[in-house]
């Protein structure tokens, strides 16, 4: 049968040796994404380094986007801005995990379960959101559709792997030296007292959900290897019942309600690590404020917060 399109794709990963880049390779493999060719790019020092894909050794190559269909950018914003012109010139579609293009009004910012239709509007680049934004928006969007969010107050407990290899190595060293600690997120402090990570959550969530609501976040780095946790307090314009909240979340893609109230057990970072779904629990009405829901959310930020979301975008493409 002759298909009207080419199914197998030539794929590139920029930043292949980083935590997200390595996870991208695993996700492409696990989801059996139709790859006819895979090119892996990283720093100049990494050229020639072998990585495994479907049990085959693939060497890191010099950056070359010619004849590439889809390029995943698993880099920081500076590198994304540096290499995007070359990718655009080569005619490939970029799926960017950095913050460089997320708030550009011409660039779709996508969580496929929420706004996958935006992918069709791309002009050669699609942005994937910040990891905490993804974990926040995925369970809140279906509730927003039903009850209309008025205000969100969220505290995040973010794993070391969200800070890259250096942060992860520091955690492991601190564990050996018994100097484990937690600290406010160390992204740049803005003039209003919020750090960039907290600002991203508000701006990106509003763009993805096409909504205007108040949001105040406190982001904290905790001594956990992998998977972020969020304590969310969300006020709605409309009244709700817990039964209806459970019904909505049970029907929403990418979400698992995980509660063992008898034994007081809920999702933890260790439980959520290397799992694709986002886990919700401890659902309860805020006893101090009307139309307000409390919830606990845990998800693997290297998967739904990063690599998995990017591959899902590619699957939509």
List keywords for this structure.
Dihydrodipicolinate Reductase, domain 2, alpha/beta, 2 domains, Rossmann fold, 32% helix, 9 helices, 16 strands, globular, disordered N terminus, 317 residues
SSE layout:
Blueprint: E1 9-14, H1 19-30, E2 35-41, E3 50-53, E4 56-61, E5 70-73, H2 77-90, E6 93-96, H3 112-115, E7 125-127, H4 131-147, E8 149-158, H5 164-176, E9 183-184, H6 196-209, E10 214-221, E11 228-236, H7 242-250, E12 255-257, E13 259-260, E14 265-266, H8 269-272, E15 278-285, E16 292-299, H9 303-316
Parallel strand pairs: 1-2, 1-5, 2-4, 5-6, 6-7, 8-10, 12-15
Antiparallel strand pairs: 3-4, 8-11, 9-10, 11-16, 13-14, 15-16
Helix pairs in contact: 1-9, 4-6, 4-9
Give structural notes.
With 317 residues, the chain is α/β, with parallel strands linked by helices. The protein folds into two domains: 9-128 and 306-316, NAD(P)-binding Rossmann-like Domain (Rossmann fold); 132-301, 2-Layer Sandwich (Dihydrodipicolinate Reductase, domain 2). The chain is 32% helix and 27% strand. The protein has nine helices and 16 strands. It has helices at residues 19-30, 77-90, 112-115, 131-147, 164-176, 196-209, 242-250, 269-272, 303-316; strands at residues 9-14, 35-41, 50-53, 56-61, 70-73, 93-96, 125-127, 149-158, 183-184, 214-221, 228-236, 255-257, 259-260, 265-266, 278-285, 292-299. The strands form three sheets. A seven-stranded mixed sheet has the order 3-4-2-1-5-6-7, with helices on both faces. A seven-stranded mixed sheet has the order 9-10-8-11-16-15-12. α1 packs across α9, α4 crosses α6 and α4 (131-147) crosses α9.
